[in-house]
Amino acid sequence: MSATATAKSTSIWGGATAQVGLPAPDFDLPSTKNLEQLDENLKLSDYRGKWLVLLFYPLDFTFVCPTELTAFSDRFEEFQGINAEIIGLSTDSVYSHRAWLRTPREKGGVEGLRYPLAADLTKKTTADYGVLIEKDGIALRGLFIIDPEGVLRYKVVHDLNIGRSVEETLRVIQALQTGGLCQAEWRPGQATLKA
Predict the structure, then answer these.
(1) Can you give the pLDDT at residue 14?
(2) Residue 31 per-residue DSSP state
(3) Ranges of the chain whose pLDDT falls below 70
(4) Within the chain, what is the greatest distance between any pair of CA atoms?
(5) Which of 140, 114, 170, 152 shows the shortest CA–CA distance to 55?
(6) In this structure, what DSSP letter does residue 143 have?
(7) How far apart are CA 169 and CA 145, in angstroms?
(8) What is the CATH number of domain 26-178?
(9) Alpha-carbon torsion 147, 121, 126, 167, what sign?
(10) Which one, of 38, 95, 34, 107, lies nearest residue 66 by Cα?
(11) What residues contact 163, with CB distance under 8 A and at least 6 apart?
């Protein structure tokens, strides 16, 4: 496939695509960090020195999304224990996020979520990370791991109907933190491969 054909095929998902091994696309987005005032933006630079998991999801008040976001929240201390933070991100507004955060889990909400949700109303960040479905104006389920220097180290994109694995995300961060060669099914505590 030619470079032109490749560029055209990625543009249907919003243009620029974040690339593993390169600096992660910057962002500065309204968020629920201050749930009452909704006046604190989240910036990539805020997370320098930490691992960052970006969880793009389609929409608030849907079916699969709360199962994912709450699963990551329920294990938030494990992420913090390996120097990692999480941001949930969709093209909904911060007002929609706040309403969802105030809705009990048993009613389809994400009340008690332990990390902030960011609002990408302009859809620029969603496009920069290559997960924008332009015709619908929503994100695919993209998961991106950014290292403490701001370099994108891992990305996986799921169909809208498939939730992501918290266990695998933790495993990948810990594998990346070894700096070594990690074989298939590597688990924390196991030796890495010798070159």
Answers:
(1) 44
(2) B
(3) 1-16
(4) 53
(5) 140
(6) E
(7) 8
(8) 3.40.30.10
(9) positive
(10) 107
(11) 64, 67, 68, 71, 141
Residues classed as catalytic? 65
CA distance readout (Å), 73 to 25, 89, 98, 131: 24, 14, 16, 22
Residue 147, classed as helix, strand or coil, is: coil
Residue 193 CA to chain centroid, in angstroms? 29
pTM, two decimals, is: 0.89
Q: Which amino acid is at 146?
A: I
Chain center to CA of 171: 16
Count CA atoms closer than 13 A to 74's CA, side-chain side: 11
> Which of 133, 182, 134 has the alpha carbon at shortest distance from 154?
182
Per residue in 28-73, pLDDT (tens digit) is 999 999 999 999 999 999 999 999 999 999 999 999 999 999 999 9
User: What's the rounded Cα separation, in Å, for the pair 92 and 32?
Assistant: 12
Q: Where are the domains of the chain?
A: 26-178
Any alpha helices (H) in the chain, and if so which ranges? 3-11, 64-74, 76-81, 94-101, 124-128, 166-178
SS3 69: helix
